Amino acid sequence: MVVDRQFADPSIARLYDSFCAGRRDFDFYLPLVMSARSVLDVGCGTGQLLRLARERGHAGRLCGLDPAAAMLDQARKRSDIEWILGDLGSVGWDREFDLVVMTGHAFQVLVEDDELRAALAAIRSALTENGRFAFETRNPLVREWEHWTPDDVAEVTDDAGAVVRSWHEVDTRIGEDVVGFVQTFASPSWDGPRASRSTLRFLDRDVLKSFLVSAGLAVEEQFGDWSGGPLTDTSPEIITIAGRSA
Questions:
Q1: Are 43 and 153 in a shared domain?
Q2: Burial profile 105-137: b = 16 or more Cβ within 10 angstroms, e = fewer
Q3: What is the pLDDT of residues 162-195, one digit of tens each?
Q4: Is the dihedral of CA 197, 66, 236, 231 positive or negative?
Q5: Do both 122 and 77 map to the same domain?
Q6: Fewer CB within a 10 Å sphere, N or C end of the chain?
Q7: The domain containing residue 188 runs over which residues?
Q8: How far apart are CA 132 and CA 97, in angstroms?
């Protein structure tokens, strides 16, 4: 899993939760976390989901895995959760977690076929016999990247009272399902803007299923939005819950 440069910047990592305030995906994932005895959050970022679960009374094992040290510095403000710096290629769990989650479209940073296969194999290995893997990817039929323009600006205020603005701009299409884009952060209090380039893969429903099946995972449920609506061609998300296949 590649570390986006903005997440490696401590000043940006401190603002991550503010930029992501009001996340609807947590309403979906939190009940799953609360009902599982042991949970692994892959690409946990600042660990907000696991921190929220602990605040709500989760008494079991909670483990967050992320390749960005600056993000984990924020997560480690809570010490009663296991935080691990790295990615799925640097760990080797065997049937340890009842639930593995990937939120915030983290699954889409797995761009290459081999990278996807290796990550799914590691996730399957980490799951207990009846464990589940829950994650989401944007529905490519909706073409959300077409709305990632400099006109669509998010704005927050940092601890010093300075305004920080962020926007995305697509700069590359690679094949049918890979999109490269630049995310820029800027503030009048900084010497200049800070930008980084990222690449995401937009898998359609059938291709996604084929990767899961090849990894020994079976789709149990799929939804098209955070309210649990059905998956259709116009759904913004492909939200998937999978388990070990027989």
A1: no
A2: bbbbbbbeeebbebbbebbbbbbbeebbbbbbb
A3: 999 999 999 888 888 999 999 999 999 999 999 8
A4: positive
A5: yes
A6: C
A7: 142-201
A8: 9
